[in-house]
Write a structure and sequence with these properties.
Chain A: Its cofactor is FAD. Chain A: Belongs to the FAD-binding oxidoreductase/transferase type 4 family. Chain A: It is found in: Peroxisome. Chain A: Pathway: Lipid metabolism; Glycerolipid metabolism; ether lipid biosynthesis. The structure holds two protein chains of two kinds. Chain A is α+β, with helices and mostly antiparallel strands. Chain A has 18 helices and 23 strands. In chain A, the strands form six sheets. A seven-stranded antiparallel sheet of chain A has the order 19-16-18-17-21-22-20, with helices on both faces. Chain A has a five-stranded antiparallel sheet with strand order 9-10-14-12-13. In chain A, strands 4-6-8-7 form a four-stranded mixed sheet, covered by helices on one side. The longest helix of chain A has 22 residues. The longest helix of chain B is centred in the last third of the chain and has 34 residues. Chain B has 28 helices and 24 strands. In chain B, helix 21 crosses helix 25. In chain B, 46% of the residues are buried. Classes of the chains: A alpha+beta, B alpha/beta. Bound molecules: flavin-adenine dinucleotide.
């Protein structure tokens, strides 16, 4: 079948502020871990855990309890280290496959490109456990052969046109925070692979305060978007935990969800218009309306397309005035169950604050271990908490209690009213208000945990998070059963140390909730930790599905959850999705093979960590 | 038992090389301490026609090697024993009776300590890790407020138009009738009383302690289902007793309604954890909802281990009854609907030397009205407490995780995600799995049943109904014992005694059924001396024989597979029989015996192969070029095995014969009758034929056998069913029926009665033998 290309190219607009993350990401970011190079957890000379840098509240502080927590909960031994391989050199990267005629045509367009091995490596992966582990211990069999930085919609049109003409694979790259292996290059791809890095398409093209919308290029990252809008007194309110690095296009392509969705909505609620470049041409609607009945919504092919149908280039998003007041809060419950019941009730009464999350006891303990040394901004809180324990929580068992963290936003009176209502409901479920700092620290935990994982890697720990959505009536049992399954699978596989398993309810909806798990274990004595981890996570996913949970709430399918897609949408559903792909991209130019494309088993061998056969689950 | 994995190539008969599989070996290995000398008496002693070419050395070889692994359990030979000072009693024949193989006697300690102390001691029980402590009242409240019950109440209101209060009242009544009221105070009294009774009734109560430990370690992790075999009322008392003794949480027990009627006893049981389930509640929605919720909430919260009898009711025949699925489905549903991480199912085998209700059962089987069960009936009648019921063996089997069990089935539990859990029902796949599991559990129960010497005496005696000399009996029983243990049975045989002593003791223990005459003839007591009234002689002596059958039946499951092959070999008129033909017969017989015996669904081919292996390796069956050599293979083994099952085939034939003569109605279709009526008529026919002396197997008087035959015939399409005004009616399908009868008469000698001459309508069947 011949592809008809009828893409019209236009000139690009003027330059804007440069993006916070530079083109050469390696100058600012870690090459084999999470986040900024200057920020990391280290064990300092006093053998205490310290967070370096100056960016975050925790930066420059030591956390005196964290070391013991790590030693006691997950069996870290400071003498047993597993440092990462020193660096990745050109020799470690596979030689690029070059489609010379494509490169020649590309050069003629004047669009910036690079085949530098560092540039390529940086765009070869997201942040799943196995990707990071490959960076630390192994090497990729396949990485992009070329990186291209379009600066506007028209650049993208040109690139797609040329790629189609020369049969070159495109993998769009936003912020690189994918946690579904969506960015990984299929190992068996023999064509040239281009990473289309949208980071230079980072302009806010216009802001419309009549309709309260902003029109932005898709490569803008969360922190820039919010910072720049704030200057004008607006925000989108979309705050995924990865917002420092993830991009608007990435959010659309993965159906992302932000922490404050209760007020602002998830990405699908925030989108008014999307411009989408496919091999067949540009797909977009002709109007920017709040709602439309025009048959199945084409936005829904773009959202969650995971880079396999085309490139999101521009997006019109809803904006809101900056909130007047922002307030943290927390509630302590005697146990997780009463917490879930309370969240359910709050959802039922539709009075959830901007964010409400319920941490189980393990996570609460973990949060505790993150307390910095006294004499810091947190000291008052620590004392307060202690007192709080002795007086109010007496009767609460510190080994069963659960904590909800809250974030209120809005006008002052609104916030006050909302607080009152939420705490009232909480008290019906045995919940006690436990202070703002406690809440704030809860949110901090979710930001630092990605950094903390890198420290774990140095000490025989493999860890990862996964999430799901579930109807309310199955929420509790899902948490319980998944944890039980994880414990059991660990035991079954001879993992010698107690694994760390914890969950929280991170979002509430009318009909259900989003549940987020952390799972990690000490792999001393195990020869293939990543494989073991993945096998166990798959068991957990099976358990989730059996418990009425979903394939994913917001991380997406990518490659690692492909095997559950058929079960999720059925044969007809899968066929329909495949038909869309077949129509839009018959030559598989957007060839990352995510989601519905290809057989789940095809892309398994993407990384090259020494592997040993490990028994499949018997449970 | 240690698994002795050991594959050897052995040269048995002449030119045939056989591969011994581990399965067969494990069986050899199971020859426990009780048959130290078994290999000294070779099967040659009892060969028929000298056709058997079997080298017993093969067996000896294996027994020896396994014995070495079992030095602790076997009696050491003098020469092997060192004579140093740590040996306290230098008597190789001394065997601890408290400790026996993997069994330990629970009563032993109780006989040496105060019962009061025992019943008041501190019990430190483990509980399920997700358990939230609840009282029986809390559980009931939960049920009343549950979604499931609310949903059912609404439905019933819609359908019946009754007001809410009325339906709630009904619901409460159902629940009150059902619910247990487990209370530790009552338990303690009960324990006090129970241990006294147990000590009176039994010499020893053996339990495999390892099984107890397994249950203990699982209790914390997962909800537990206990599935004991059901041969006696005492089963659940014994179970509770075990759990009390070992400081385990007391089980709650699904009991049949019959008990509830007993005043004190009913109360006592309810307060010690029994809950009452109606035998059948069809499509009574309220009852279903209450029942399901009641069971499931206790499983989900792991309040107590839940105990029920998968056979549904006490087996009156000592054979396992075909499993019922309802209770197990309800109990396992929480796993399929992901309300619990897993559920552990523990099969339990309870074997009695002598069954408390033996006589009661015999009359029930004959159809003499069952006396209403009352506490006094149970414990006072016949001075039961003065009688000796020997030993009980309780074996807690390997717990089965439903999660692991369903892995192979590739079940997708997410199918239940599309409706609230209290509405959706189990998928076909899940039901299929539960069916399979139920059978599996019954087979597990059977596997760990302990065979008493009397079972073998009974089996031999039933093939020598005129009596047998003690000397011959010893020989025959020893032979049978060897066959049984080769097939994996555990036999309770005191190794320190001579076989003759064992048999004498055993016979006198069952002095109401068998006796030894002055000249050492062992025979069945044909007339029950305690019966004075002028009852039907046939029935009273039938009862005696049925009691004997009760014990013989302990053995049947061990032999059924090999027997189904032996039957076709023994009845074969040609010189050779092709394996495939044999397998066809086997399948036919399996379908026919499918209610009376337990076969794992879908396992027929494997069972057949296994049985063939046994027959060719240890029972002298000769196969050449896929053909069984009939002359060579017809021997003592095949004869004995097939004769064991003659009564069943004969019984089924009688059932067929009876169906055949059912009168044709106006439209040329046989008049349908309720199954009960048909079985009764078939029994009448049996009685007539017995009176005529057509055969001697009085087991065919059993209504149970007749009913099972009828059900089998129904499953095979020889009988059809109608529902009329809610009741089942049956009528024959002539074509299929005739085919089955023809087949049957190939396998067993049947009386020659002309087809048209039976009138089953009249109470007593008249046979006009015109020929
Ligand atoms: C620590 C951490 C916290 C996270 N927290 C959240 C959270 O709270 N909520 C949430 O929803 N997710 C979260 N994620 C997941 C991740 O941040 C999201 O999936 C995010 O939307 C990815 O955006 P990105 O720009 O980094 O996309 P990338 O990782 O670069 O790409 C993701 C996928 O989208 C495609 N893609 C990217 N840009 C485009 C484009 N312009 N056009 C077409 N396809 C494109 C890529 O090809 C790829 O398939 C988190 C991840 C991490 C590591």
């Amino acid at each position: 079948m011949e592809t008809k290309i009828n893409i019209e190219a236009r000139e690009c607009g003027a330059e804007n502020d440069p993006p916070t993350i530079p083109k050469r990401r390696q100058e600012l970011l870690k090459w084999n871990g999470w986040g900024y190079s200057d920020s990391k957890f280290i064990v300092n000379k006093d053998k205490h855990v310290e967070f370096t840098g100056e960016r975050y509240q925790l930066s420059g502080h030591t956390m005196p309890q964290l070391r013991d927590w790590m030693m006691n909960t997950i069996g870290i031994n400071l003498d047993h280290r597993t440092p990462a391989q020193p660096s990745f050199t050109a020799a470690d990267t596979p030689t690029p496959i070059k489609n010379e005629s494509f490169i020649m045509d590309m050069r003629r367009t004047g669009i910036s490109l690079s085949d530098d091995c560092q540039d390529r490596l940086f765009r070869a992966h997201g942040h799943t456990l196995h990707e990071i582990f490959v960076l630390r211990e192994g090497r990729f069999d396949r990485i992009p052969d070329l990186v291209i930085w379009p600066t506007c919609h028209n650049d993208v049109v040109k690139i797609v046109e040329l790629a189609c003409r020369h049969n070159v694979v495109i993998i769009p790259f936003g912020g690189g925070t994918s946690v579904s292996s969506a960015l990984e290059c299929p190992a068996n791809e023999t064509r040239m692979i281009v990473s289309l890095d949208t980071s230079q398409m980072n302009k806010i093209l216009w802001v419309d305060d009549k309709n309260m919308t902003a029109h932005c290029e898709a490569g803008i990252i969360g922190q820039d978007l919010e910072r720049w809008l704030a200057k004008k007194g607006f925000c989108t309110g979309h705050e995924p935990d990865s917002m420092e690095f993830s991009s608007l296009g990435g959010w659309v392509a993965t159906r992302a969800s932000g922490m404050k969705k209760n007020i602002y909505g998830n990405i699908e609620d925030l989108i008014v218009h999307i411009k989408f470049v496919t091999p067949l041409g540009v797909m977009e609607k002709n109007c920017q309306v709040p709602r439309i009945s025009s048959g199945p919504d084409i936005h829904h092919f773009m959202m969650g397309s995971e880079g396999i149908l085309g490139v999101v280039t521009e997006v019109t998003m809803k904006i809101r005035p900056l909130p007047e007041c922002k307030k943290y809060g927390s509630i302590v419950f005697p146990d997780f169950e009463s917490g879930v019941k309370c969240l359910r009730e709050i959802a039922k009464q539709r009075c959830a604050p901007a964010s409400i999350r319920l941490m189980d006891n393990e996570q609460f303990q973990f949060g505790h271990a993150l307390k910095p040394e006294s004499g810091t901004i947190f000291s008052s809180f620590v004392d307060g908490l202690k007192k709080f324990y002795i007086t109010k929580i007496k009767g609460f068992d510190p080994h069963t209690l659960a904590v909800a963290t809250l974030l209120f936003e809005g006008k002052k009176q609104e916030v006050a009213a909302m607080e009152k209502r939420v705490y009232e409901i909480a008290s019906k479920f045995g919940g006690l208000a436990a202070g703002a700092e406690n809440g704030e620290r809860g949110y901090m935990l979710t930001f630092v945990i990605a950094y903390l994982r890198d420290l774990g890697f140095d000490y025989y720990i493999v860890a990862e998070s996964f999430e799901t959505s579930v109807p309310w009536d199955r929420c509790l049992e899902l948490c319980k059963n998944v944890k039980d399954r994880l414990h059991r699978e660990c035991k079954e596989r001879g993992i010698q140390f107690p694994p760390y398993i914890t969950c929280r309810v991170t979002q509430t909806y009318d009909a259900g909730a989003c549940v987020y798990f952390y799972f990690g274990f000490n792999y001393r004595g195990i020869s293939n930790p990543v494989q073991v981890y993945e096998d166990i996570e798959n068991c957990a996913r099976e358990e989730i599905l059996a418990n009425g949970g979903s394939i994913s709430h917001h991380h997406g399918v990518g490659k690692i959850r492909k095997r559950y897609l058929r079960q999720t949408v059925g044969d007809v559903g899968l066929g329909t999705l495949r038909a869309i792909k077949e129509y839009l991209d018959p030559h598989n130019i957007f060839g990352a093979n995510n989601c519905m494309v290809g057989d789940p088993e095809d892309d398994r061998k993407v990384h090259n960590v020494p592997k040993k056969a490990f028994p499949q689950s018997k449970l | 038992m240690k698994s002795l994995i050991f594959r050897g190539r052995l040269f048995l008969t002449g030119l045939h090389t056989y591969r011994f599989t581990a399965a067969v070996l494990t069986r050899c290995e199971r020859t426990n301490r009780s048959h130290g000398e078994q290999h000294d008496c070779c099967p040659q002693t009892s060969l028929t026609g000298g056709t058997l070419e079997f080298d017993p050395r093969a067996l000896i070889y294996f027994s020896r090697s396994s014995r070495l692994l079992h030095t602790s359990a076997t009696t050491p030979k003098m020469s092997e024993q060192s004579r140093n000072s740590w040996i306290k009693k230098d008597d190789p024949k001394l065997v601890s009776a408290k400790q026996k193989d993997f069994f330990v006697d629970m009563l032993d300690d109780r006989r040496h300590a105060s019962d009061f102390h025992y019943s008041t001691r501190v019990r430190d029980v483990t509980t399920y890790k997700y358990n939230k402590p609840r009282s029986p009242k809390d559980i009931k409240d939960h049920v009343m407020q549950s979604d499931r019950v609310k949903y059912a109440v609404e439905k019933v209101m819609e359908e019946s138009g009754l007001p809410l209060e009325e339906v709630m009242k009904q619901t409460q009544a159902i629940l009150d009738e059902m619910a247990h009221n487990l209370r530790i105070g009552v338990i303690r009294c009960f324990a006090f009383f129970l241990v006294k009774v147990m000590k009176k009734l039994f010499q020893r109560i053996y339990i495999n302690e390892e099984g107890v430990q397994k249950v203990r370690s699982l209790l914390k992790e997962y909800p537990i289902l206990l599935m004991p075999s059901h041969r006696s009322y005492l089963d659940f008392l014994l179970m509770s007793y075990v759990f009390y003794e070992f400081d385990l949480p007391l089980p709650v027990i699904a009991a049949a309604m019959d008990f509830m009627g007993m005043r004190f006893f009913g109360w006592l049981l309810r307060n010690s954890g029994a809950f009452y389930i109606r035998r059948s509640f069809g499509d009574d929605m309220l009852y279903w909802a209450v029942f399901t919720e009641y069971i499931q909430t206790q499983i989900c919260n792991g309040d107590s281990p839940v105990e029920f009898f998968v056979e549904g009711t006490r087996s009156r025949t000592s054979k396992s009854y075909a499993p019922k699925f309802g209770m197990l489905s309800a109990a396992l549903e929480p796993y399929f609907k992901a309300q619990v991480p897993d559920i552990m199912i523990v099969p339990v085998s309870i074997s009695y030397d002598k069954i408390l209700e033996e006589k009661l059962y015999a009359y029930e089987l004959l159809g003499v009205p069952k006396p209403k069960e009352s506490a006094s009936g149970l414990f006072k009648a016949r001075n039961i407490l003065k009688e000796d019921f020997g030993n009980v063996h309780i074996y807690l089997g390997e717990p089965v995780s439903i999660r692991q069990y369903s892995v192979t089935g590739n079940l997708d539990r997410s199918v239940h995600s599309l409706a609230p859990r209290y509405i959706v029902s189990l998928s076909d796949q899940e039901q299929h799995l539960i069916r399979h599991l139920s059978y599996d559990m019954v087979i597990q129960q059977q596997k760990h049943m302990v065979i008493s010497p009397f079972a073998m005496i009974a089996a031999v005696l039933l093939q020598n109904r005129e009596g047998i000399h003690l000397r011959n009996l010893v020989r025959e029983v020893e032979w049978l014992k060897r066959q049984s243990s080769n097939l994996g049975a555990y036999i309770d045989w005191p190794v320190s005694e001579t076989p003759e002593t064992v048999l004498r003791a055993s016979v006198s223990h069952h002095g109401n059924i068998v006796q030894i005459t002055a000249d050492d003839m062992v025979e069945l007591i044909v007339e029950d001396p305690t019966i004075t009234s002028n009852q039907d002689k046939l029935m009273t002596s039938g009862a005696q024989q049925l009691m004997l059958c009760l014990y013989k039946n302990q053995l049947m499951h061990i032999f059924v597979d090999v027997a189904m092959i032996a039957i076709s070999i023994n009845s074969c008129a040609q010189d050779t029989l092709h394996i495939e033909e044999l397998k066809k017969h086997y399948k036919f017989l399996e379908r026919l015996l499918n209610i009376d015996f337990i076969f794992l669904p879908g396992n027929t081919d494997k069972d057949f192969e296994q049985a063939m292996l046994v027959l060719t390796h240890t029972c002298g069956v000769v196969v050449e070029n896929s053909h069984v050599q009939i002359r060579k293979s017809t021997n003592k083994y095949t004869t004995f095995f097939s004769q064991m099952f003659d009564p069943f085939l004969l019984g089924y034939w009688i059932m067929c014969r009876c169906l055949k003569s059912m009168q044709t109605g106006a439209h040329g279709k046989p008049l349908a009758k309720p199954p009960k009526v048909i079985t009764k008529e078939a029994q009448n026919l049996s009685a007539t034929l017995l009176r005529m002396g057509a055969f001697k197997h009085m087991e065919v008087l059993s209504l149970d056998m007749m009913n099972n035959g009828l059900q089998s015939l129904y499953h095979m399409g020889a009988v059809q069913k109608d529902k009329r005004e809610g009741n089942t009616y049956m009528y024959p399908n002539e074509v299929v029926l005739s085919q089955i009868m023809d087949e049957l008469s190939k396998f067993v000698d049947v009386p020659n009665i002309p087809a048209t001459s039976i009138n089953v309508e009249t109470k007593t069947v008249v046979i006009n033998a015109k020929l």
